[in-house]
Amino acid sequence: MDSPSQASGAAARNSGERIFLWGMMGAGKSTLGHALAQRLGWPWVDLDESVATLTGMTIPEYFQQFGEAAFRRVEAQALDLIIQIHSKVIVATGGGAPTFGYNLEAMRLAGVTVYLDVTPMELARRLNLKSGNRPLIAGVSPGALPHHLSHLLAAREYHYQQAHIHLKGDNITLEQLWSALRSSKLLTLPHLPPRGELPLS
After folding, report:
1. Which end of the chain has less Cβ packing within 10 Å, N or C?
2. H helix runs in the chain, sequence order
């Protein structure tokens, strides 16, 4: 059962109305981010797509040729550009983005961060249903995926827990995200009528 959202601390209003969605691959960052951007009329940016644009390569190609450390450096550059260009934006980050360098603090200072906390079992179910080449799970069998994701999540959890807002559950909806953002009082959102729930799978 989904737990209530939690806004961490009494943070002051941030320097921009940017919303950064954090969480593991398969958590619904892109799906919810796109839906939230449509509701607000704000731009929506996928950080991985921004990296691909900067490098002229797909994420798997870049990983294979240059490795994860180089990827994280380019990812940080792409994030910095997004923050510079957009004062209002929804950003679906890569799962590892908050764990590298200054990214976490940069996002917390530039806007509101939201951790979409989905169980490894549900993440594995979603990822097994989708086609796509994800470097960090390449070669992992479907049966071993939940265990693999649990280890990856454990390494990232400390960073994820520093998000302003924490939404936990295997069926996080747009309405839950909207309600958590409004109740956090960390940014000003318009009063809009509900538009229904958004299934993630």
Report:
1. N
2. 29-40, 47-55, 59-66, 68-85, 103-110, 120-129, 145-160, 174-184
Question: Are the beta carbons of 93 and 47 closer than 8 angstroms?
Answer: yes
Residue 57 CB: number of other CB atoms within 10 A?
Answer: 17
Task: Report whether 119 contacts 2 (CB < 8 A).
Answer: no
CATH (one of 2.40.50.140, 3.40.50.300, 3.30.450.40, 1.10.3660.10) for 6-182: 3.40.50.300
Every domain of the chain and the residues it spans? 6-182
Condensed to tens digits (0 to 9), the pLDDT of residues 133-192 reads 677 787 788 888 999 999 999 999 999 999 999 999 999 999 999 999 999 988 887 766
Measure Cα distances from 77 to 14, 82, 100, 130 in Å.
21, 9, 12, 28
